[in-house]
Amino acid sequence: MPVYVIFDVEIRDIEQYQEFMARVKPALEQAGGKYLARGGAHKVHEGDWQPRRIVLLEFPSLGAWEAFYNGPVYQGLKAIRDSCSSARLVSVEGLK
Fold first, then answer.
1. How many whole angstroms separate alpha carbon 28 and alpha carbon 68?
2. What is the CATH number of the domain that holds 10?
3. What is the secondary structure of 19-58 as a DSSP string?
4. How many CA atoms lie within 13 A of 86 on its CB side?
């Protein structure tokens, strides 16, 4: 079943973050993931959540997401992401 990953990102250095984005997209696609939303306009309708930049990904399964996230390629790119931004992220299984 598909898995959706939601990132809430605060960017501190846009130039370095753009380098991360350029390098992560092909790695993500190779792992079977795809972007569903990336930094578009958003609006909070309930609650006190104050998201900054929302990124929504879809992977074919939880295993595919975790293999990508914990794998050496993404962990190397994550070091770039962590140096120029901070993020909260969750994954949620979709419906069959």
1. 7
2. 3.30.70.100
3. HHHHHHHHHHHHTT-EEEEES------SSS---SEEEEEE
4. 1
Angstrom distance (rounded) from CA 81 to CA 85 = 6
Pairing of strands 3-11, 85-93: antiparallel
Say if 46 falls within a structural domain.
no
pLDDT tens for each residue of 47-87: 999 999 999 999 999 999 999 999 999 999 999 999 999 99
What domain range includes position 61? 3-41+52-93
Helix (H, G, I), strand (E, B) or coil at 9: strand
**Would residue 17 count as lying in a domain?**
yes
- The pTM of the full predicted model, rounded to 2 decimals, is 0.91
